[in-house]
Design goal:
about 260 residues; alpha+beta; Rossmann fold; 7-stranded antiparallel sheet; 10 strands; about 20% strand; elongated
């Protein structure tokens, strides 16, 4: 189980004049930049795929275009007794920065303060720089060895970060255009009827040409064993997940349509 910073609801007003914050820093890692949304387009505070707020207090906001001269306009009249500390700002991009608060507050209060800062013209956009906790890790025993799903910094696709937002949709059909498929117990429940488009009999290795049977009959050639590559690709894409069997699929809800186009050699 891992934790990382996350962003929740965001507040934005139309661009204004003022002092754009740009503070040099050694570096900061923030996984996402807030959507540029109007207040009425507020995003859900809890993404759908397994990210939960763990109750930690919030001590920073992510802001856009901080106008430090107007900070005094958010004070006693505001709902939240907290203030930005511009000297603590860490630059994220040319327009965005993470700015500390004078004391830690709850997530709800941080969202209220973000709204007040935008409405007062202090920032063009603001949202809590809170924490997230990943709760969508699969229990498949081979998942730990799936290097291709590892975090981006480890040369993977960052699947666990993606699963924190969504684990897929049953409305998605993934066509695996490859060597065909086998009835492996970790993929068979995800399959929909496919097609075999290998026409040459010596390449097809199944005794016939085009047909509705995409079974992989093997592609061993020149002393090399069969690759069963279609099964491998289908499993990586959409293997049954959280079933305590085999590996995890990237899309944990989609249907797989096997299309056989590769045969012997």
């Amino acid at each position: 189980m891992t934790t990382d910073r996350w962003t929740t609801s965001s507040w934005r007003r139309p661009p204004i004049g003022g002092i754009a914050l740009s503070v040099a820093a050694l570096g900061v890692v923030v996984p996402s930049i807030m959507p540029r949304l109007a207040p009425e387009e507020r995003v859900s505070a809890t993404p759908s795929g397994g990210v939960t707020h763990d109750g930690r207090l919030v001590d920073r906001l992510i802001v856009r275009e901080l106008d430090a001269e107007n900070l005094d306009s958010v004070g006693a009249s505001g709902q939240v007794a907290a203030a930005l500390e511009p000297d603590s700002a860490v630059s994220i991009t040319e327009d965005f920065a993470s700015v500390g608060l004078d004391h830690a507050i709850t997530l709800d209060d941080a969202e209220k303060l973000s709204k007040e800062l935008v409405e007062a013209g202090v920032v063009a956009a603001a949202e809590p720089d809170g924490w997230r906790q990943t709760t969508a890790l699969p229990d498949d025993p081979l998942h730990g060895g799936q290097w291709s799903l590892a975090p981006v910094v480890d040369h993977g696709i960052g699947a666990e970060d993606a699963w924190a937002l969504t684990t897929g949709s049953p409305a998605v059909v993934v066509a695996i255009v490859d060597t065909g498929i086998l009835p492996h117990p970790d993929i068979v429940s995800r399959l929909t009827p496919g097609r075999d488009f290998v026409s040459a009999l010596w390449v097809a290795n199944d005794g016939d040409g085009w047909d509705p049977d995409p079974t992989d009959t093997g592609n061993a050639c020149d002393g090399k064993p069969s690759s069963w590559h279609g099964l491998h690709t289908a499993g990586t894409s959409a293997a049954a997940t959280n079933n305590s069997v085999g590996m995890a699929g990237v899309d944990q809800a989609s249907t797989v349509l096997p299309v056989r186009v590769l045969g012997v050699c």
